[in-house]
Amino acid sequence: MSPTPNTEYRGNIHQRQKELMLKWYERLDESAGSGRPLPVSLMISGNCVELLEAFEAVPLYPEVNALQLAIRHQSLEPILAAEELGYAADNCAYVKADIGCYLKGITPTGGRLPVPGLVLCNFVGCNTYIKWFEHTAALTGAPLFMLDVPFLRTDEPSPADVDYVVRQLHELVAILERLSGRKFDYERFQRAVECSRQVEELWSAIKNLARRSPSPFDAYFDAITLMGPLYVYRGTPEGVEFFEIALRELKEKAEQGLGVYEQERFRLVFEGPPPYPYFRTFRDMFAQWKACAVASTYSTVGGLWEFGARHDPAKPFESVALHMLAQNVTNRNYLQRYDQIARYVDEWDADGVIIHFVKSCRLFSAGQGDMREYLTRTIGVPTLYIESDLEDPRYFAEAQTKNRIDAFFEALEHAKLTGRTRPAAQEGPRPDARLRVLP
Amino acid sequence: MERTFDRCEAVLADLDLGEVRRWKQEHPGARAIAYFPVYAPVEIIHAAGFLPVGLAGAGDRLDIQHADARFGSFICSIVKTTMELGMTGHLEPLDGLLFSSICDSARNLAFVMKRNFPQMYVDFLHLPQNPGSPASVDFLAQEYARLARELEQMGGAPVTSESLQAAIRLYNQNRALVRRLYALRSASPHRVTAREAYLLVRAGYFLPVEEHNAILEQALAALPKRKGKLRDSLRIVIEGAFCEQPPLDLIRLVEDAGCYVVDDDFVLGRNWFLDDVATDSEPLLALAGAYAEQSRYSSVRHDFRHPRWEALADKVRHTRADAVIFLIAKFCEPAYFDYVLYKKKLEEMGIPHLLLEFEEKMFTFERMRMEVETFVESLVFD
Q1: A with B: how many residue pairs have Cβ under 8 Å apart?
Q2: What is the distance between the alpha carbons of residues A292 and A225, in angstroms, rounded to a whole number?
Q3: B114: nearest CB among A135, A160, A432
Q4: Does A144 contact B at CB distance below 8 Å?
Q5: Is the pLDDT of residue A259 over 80?
Q6: Three-state secondary structure call for residue B86
Q7: Nearest Cα to Cα of residue A328 among A161, A191, A149
Q8: Biggest alpha carbon–alpha carbon distance for chain B
Q9: Given Cys at both, which of A111, A270, B15, B167 links A29, Cβ 3.0 to 4.6 Å?
Q10: Would you list the DSSP string of B258-320?
């Protein structure tokens, strides 16, 4: 086996991403000292950060902090601190790392993190969000607003669903006015929504570049670098500027025919979050086979825009509500995720699907065996099922994982050599048509 | 009385849903709609002329042969045995399955069931988690209206104000009877054991409400006359088994080790509302309003106006409990989370507690017996 190639894309994008994330942490540090800007904690998935922009509040994302710690190999200490408090081995390790950081005063950059002025739980799909934010509020004494977002259980959100979320957004506006001491600036809100629309347009164009062969970037491992600014700066001009740079660079690369690998051997779709404590190790296991991710469900936790959804400044409240309800992978139902993957396999022309069962994340993982059954038997695409965790380093079995990955690629290669590309799809129950929303 | 307990035990041991089959034979053309724990608006199902059935896994009576491969590790037992029941044909008498937003595993199960059993009506209700918002009652009433329409489309009777009000009255009666049973046990735990009370309540998962009401009434007439000597046992509250249900032997074990269970959260949906649901207003709004304002606390219902740990503290005070036993299903994330803040609160109050983890299909209880006995002894001889 040849030595692992250096696959990570490093250009202006990388530099700019670092600067932006550092600037965000500086704002949080500033807020920790003065209480201004108002820090509001919220979740990545299906959030309403545009509304915070209207109040010049700074979003505080515990998930981003948790992943930053894990990728820097600093997650075990806070996890153990949380377990000492009574959290179970099987609780979400993101939550444990976050609570443990609060208990021990650890931060990913060494700067200070503020106690949130408002704990804004956008309950989008994952029930763990609720517990996480209730615990944050209970432990810090910060006020909690539970923004209840109905789970997408029918084809499309109903008018009642949208109305329910919009009414709660208006309640939130009143709370933010009180906490920030500012009047709600509707035009500023619209401008933030317009920035989001532009960012979504640019991000979608980037994701669509991965349809080309070779793909100019890895839509799982490299997408994560882009996801920091995507979430933290979505509703801002800095976000727009970042994605203009990113699209320009990656487009140039694509037009020159440059890919992640000189010769891309396998094209993959990834399902589930990555094992952040072993991010580089995990990436290398695929790089050794010159296997490039062309799409991933994890990169759609914040928004599922590559199929056309956009925020709309003409209807800012409704479009924020629709985004929360329907345009992120976590609030969509499980069978819609099957459809999403099937579409990636067909339209992004993938050779296989990697399903990463994450112990900490039941939202992603519960039922992935059934998903595999569907993808293998009904869609007819080879799948690999591996297990570890996204935050807890104790659950990554390196040798075992590598063995399984190598065996998967050996089988894929053998199939290519013998001219047998995909196993024939078998007849099996397909998801109910009523649940299929993707056009 | 013993015959009633035996009958209830036989009803809930019957994986083939004999009672449901019997009811369907007696009501040709009518449907049986099962609901996954914890709460479901059974009144709406009843008003459509259908039988609501509580589906809570297979207990210790079914080997898992297929469902492990569908759900993977770190997923609780009730999710897998429910799937297994479907894959082995045991759910055949059911026409529909109703899930709600209790946890991430149960939610994915709803859609896995939908794909694997396309002949069944599978629906998911979003029960609001922000009851403090004035918008939540309107939303939930519309969600309930959607369910009513779905049931009507399946051939159910029109769900009218009258039929809903009649159903609310029947279930108010049912909940009042369960509340009386719990009050009796708390006041006189030597007259009815936790295991017996459990059998009486849980049988209601499978029986028509009218029949269940009759059983409870008969029990409530007989139990206070029962002889029994008050033992020198600890009064304990059991917390954490609100969804997956513990083996019957485990409930008995806790009692045998020297505990009176003076309150618990088993079969929680049978005793969901603190008071009667109003019958003098628009019924769907009344049901939705009751959910927002009259629900019991639970790890799967969120109302930060009155946090669950405060509600547990109130329960401990109200029942004059000496201790709390957390009986948590393995891999149940909502219960694991709540344990942390419950524990903190109990420690502030100076209330002792013990954490036990169970699975539906436990076959050895020796270690657990030792743990409970040691816990009891440590308190009795303190």
Answers
A1: 174
A2: 15
A3: A432
A4: yes
A5: yes
A6: helix
A7: A149
A8: 62
A9: A111
A10: TEEEEE--TTGGGG-BSSPPPSSS-HHHHHHHHHHHSBPPBTTB--TTS-HHHHHHHHHHHTT
Tell me the C-alpha distance between A70 and A279, whole Å: 9
Give the number of other CB atoms < 10 A from CB of residue A83: 17
ipTM of the assembly?
A: 0.96
- Both tokens of A431, joined, read 């998801």
Q: Across the interface, do B139 and A387 touch by the CB < 8 Å criterion?
A: no
Residues in chain B with pLDDT < 70?
382
Question: Band of the pLDDT at A421, cuts 50, 70, 90?
Answer: low
User: Smallest Cβ distance to A138: which of B109, B143, B307?
Assistant: B307
Nearest CA in chain B to A358: B74
Of B115, B133, B304, the CB nearest to A429: B115
| d(C-alpha A54, C-alpha A172), whole Å | 12
Which letter does DSSP use for residue A299 in this model? Answer: G
Indicate yes or no: CB of B333 within 8 angstroms of CB of A92: yes
If one counts every other C-beta atom within 10 angstroms of the C-beta of residue B225, the result is 8
Q: How far apart are CA B144 and CA B130, in angstroms?
A: 17
SS3 B99: strand
The 10 Å Cβ neighbour count of residue B318 is 12
Scanning the structure block, which residue is given the tokens 């009986």?
B327
Q: Chain B residue closest to A146 (CA)?
A: B130
C-alpha span between B29 and A404 (Å, rounded): 52
Give how far Cα A70 sits from Cα of A66, A98, A214, A280, A392, Å: 6, 11, 30, 12, 8
- Round to whole Å and give the CA distance between A409 and B221: 70
Q: What is the mean pLDDT of residues A366-381?
A: 96
Nearest one of A388, A379, A275 to A335, comparing CA atoms = A379
Identify whether the C-beta of residue B324 lies closer than 8 Å to the C-beta of residue B316: yes
pLDDT in tens, B118-157: 999 999 999 999 999 999 999 999 999 999 999 999 999 9
pLDDT at A439: 27
Res. A433 pLDDT band, cuts 50 70 90: very low
B164 within 8 A of B44, measured Cβ to Cβ: yes
3-state secondary structure of A327: coil
A427 closest CA partner among A382, A380, A383:
A380
Task: Report the run of H or E that residue A292 belongs to, with start and end.
Answer: strand A291-296
Q: What is the mean pLDDT of chain A?
A: 93
d(CA A185, CA B361): 57
Is A83 at the interface with chain B, CB within 8 A? no
CB contact under 8 A, A167 and B133: yes
Which B residues in the span 300-329 are in contact with A, Cβ-Cβ below 8 Å?
300, 302, 304, 307, 309
Estimate the share of chain A in helix, then strand, then coil, as percent rounded to the nearest 5: 55, 10, 35
Give the pair of three-digit tokens for residue A380. 């007819």
CB atoms inside a 10 Å sphere around CB B161: 12
**Phi (first) and psi of residue A41, to 5 degrees:** -85, 140
Residue in chain B closest to A91 (alpha carbons) equals B333
Interface test with B, best of A84, A362, A372, A379 (most B CBs within 10 A): A362
Neighbours of A87 (CB within 10 A): 23
Which pLDDT value is given to residue A434? 40
- The set of residues, in sequence order, having a beta carbon less than 8 Å from that of A296 and lying 6+ positions away, is A219, A220, A223, A269, A270, A271
From CA B326, how far away is CA B254, in angstroms rounded? 12
A45's tokens: 């998935």
Instruction: Decide if B319 contacts B235 (C-beta within 8 A).
Output: yes
How near does any CA of chain B get to the CA of A375, in Å? 13
Phi/psi for B191 (5° steps) reads -90, -25
Whether residue B72 and residue A366 make contact (CB cut-off 8 A), yes or no, is yes
**Burial (CB count <10 Å: 0-12, 13-18, 19+), residue A439:** exposed
